[in-house]
Input
Amino acid sequence: MQETELPLKDIHLPDAISWWPPAIGWWLLVLLIPTLLVFSYWLYKRLTRKTALKTAKKELAAIKINAELDNTQKLRELSMLLRRVAVSLAPRAEVASLTGQSWLAYLDQSLTGAPFSVGAGQLLISAPYRNVAPSDEEINLFISLCEDWLKAQTKPAKNKKTS
Output
């Protein structure tokens, strides 16, 4: 047989590698990155929430034992503490503008009954307009109510809407 008569075919190069479908590593990254982002956000919120509550409990204990503050000053400090905690735990737009009865109703959401709207919590809106300072008994009741409210905040917040 002669060389020219052999039925040989020319060498064919393989097709270029396509970008689709991606390799398994890219699919894993597509799933892993959003999962890590969501987990990081959840962890940040959880750590921030616990830190705010721990700090608030320490501040409440400090206000409770501070003998230099009179009852009016203690009430003012407790009011600011409740507001700071509420703003750090709930959306700012939902909580920051609340005043008067709507503020007390918001505080009542995490407790049974209505201790802020009806009970010792009324001190928040009535004390600034009274001629006499709150009594020691009223302040002690209000402090225990604040402690109960802070304890109730350790549970996950539920979106309760009031009409």
Remarks:
- Confidence is low (pLDDT under 50) at residues 159-163.
- Residues 52-152 form one domain.
- Residues 12 and 54 are 72 Å apart (CA to CA).
